[in-house]
Amino acid sequence: MKDRNHCCDYSGEGARLSAVLCLYLPLFILLQLSGCATTYPVNPPLKHIDEETAYNYQNVVEQSDKGSNVLLMLAFSGGGTRAAAFSYGVLKELSETELGRERHKYRLSDEVDVITSVSGGSFTSAYFGLYGDRIFKDFEHDFLRRNVQGELTGQVLNPFNWPRLLSPFYTRADMASELYDEILFHHATYADMIKTHGPFVIINATEMTLGTRYQFTQNYADIICSDLSQLPVSRAVTASSAVPILFSPITLTNHAGECGWQQPAWMRAALDTQDRSSRLYNLATGMLALENREDHPYLHLFDGGLADNLGLRAMLDGVLRYNSIDEALKALGMEKTRKVVIILVNAETALDVESSRKMQSPTFAAALGAATSVPLQRYSFETVALMKDRLADWQQESYESACGKTVQSEKGMADKSADTECKGVDFHFIEVNFSEHPDPAERDYLKRLPTSFVLTDEAVDRLIAAGRLVLRNNAEYQRLLSEAAQ
């Protein structure tokens, strides 16, 4: 009598055939299914460039906001759920900070014009860009307090997903993108991002082969003749947060040459100089390489933190293309701007020093972690220093342009008090990071939180509270509020 607890009966006549069918038939079926698996939808081609409908600053930010005299920009760093929660805390503080008087009061969160983000910070920026104030109702439940890492692991271990995962055209990153689409973005595309008229969100990734930053804006998509409006927002966020080894890259098809894209004037001028030491030349060559469809028929996009873990480079490169800060503001339709505010939310953690306390050679995991985290932190430091230097230059340029003469203080910054008739642009750079927390014990706790997609409710609470507190205590932020109240 057959044992009903077993899938096959190996006794009697035909035992060998039964054994072969029992052992290999499931594998055969999986291979057949994987061979029939459809290719995951890729980025649709763009037939012609249309600046009127493109995902760019001019089409996203409402005209009424462009007439404002304040340009408020946020940069959200990478760092998994830790970064998402920390940046969410800053947004929450901005949403509860009111300025103005009586009937003309406004919240600072409503004044955000641009958010540039990387990796974990991209979850917060994309959700806010799509849904605005809804983030304060749903985001904690839908993402921050959710075991996203466990759900991703469960998807991979689910046998029903194995046929697709065996296909070379479907990866773990595609699976992650589907999950983010389901729990967070609800099939929203960049066309939906335009319709909301919220802040202009720049999600950053890294092109694996070129090692350059790739940003999900139509300006970059135009180079490869890709229609960004049809791309799911979840794909961009997945690319921005696809940590190598743990995730596969998000792949885009290069359609360059099909939409009539031409090199802009700034790029032609930069390439003509042949100055390899110039940042503008290197930006131009990096972007132009995307057009080389023969060598790069596909773009493989990994974690944006590999090229810039702070998100600040998008701002620096954006201004770099113009001759002056005034020209850059005019291009955005913000020539009346009198104040530029940049808030960097940096969820960078402390370097691991445990290996330095032991004589034994570091483990492979420790060596790999150091090989990635140490250069990133050094590069991040240089990026912040560069931003501060450029802000000093921009402010000097602005006041000299407004006054028609050099106005300089002892610190090298343009001093608006030197001439009350000067109406140049005033710059505020506000960095929110764990090192600025007033409590040493809390600083240590925050810096030791892992980079993952699952944290305890206690950790999420403390990260949100830290984001609010550090921003509120920042001296430059307080100066901004004081000036706005006058």
Order of helices and strands: HHHEHEEEHHHHHHEEHHEHHEHHEHEHHH
Give the biggest sheet: 8 strands, mixed
- Radius of gyration using CA atoms only: 25 Å
Q: What sort of overall outline do the alpha carbons produce when their principal axes are compared?
A: globular
Low-confidence regions? 1-13, 19-38, 409-420
Total number of strands: 10
**Helical residue percent?**
40-55%
Distance between the termini: 92 Å
Q: What's the tally of helices?
A: 20
- The chain-level mean pLDDT equals 85
Explain what the structure shows.
The structure is a single chain. With 486 residues, this protein is α/β, with parallel strands linked by helices. Helix content is 47%, strand content 11%. It has 20 helices and ten strands. The strands form two sheets. Strands 1, 4, 5, 6, 7, 8, 9 and 10 form an eight-stranded mixed beta sheet that branches. The radius of gyration is 25 Å and the shape is globular.
Task: Give a brief outline of the structure.
The protein has 486 residues and is α/β, with parallel strands linked by helices. It has helices spanning 15-36, 57-60, 63-66, 80-95, 120-131, 135-144, 148-157, 162-165, 172-185, 190-196, 218-223, 233-240, 265-273, 279-288, 313-320, 325-331, 364-403, 440-447, 457-473, 475-485; strands at 70-76, 98-99, 106-107, 112-118, 200-207, 213-215, 250-253, 298-303, 339-346, 426-433. The longest helix is centred in the last third of the chain and has 40 residues, at 364-403.
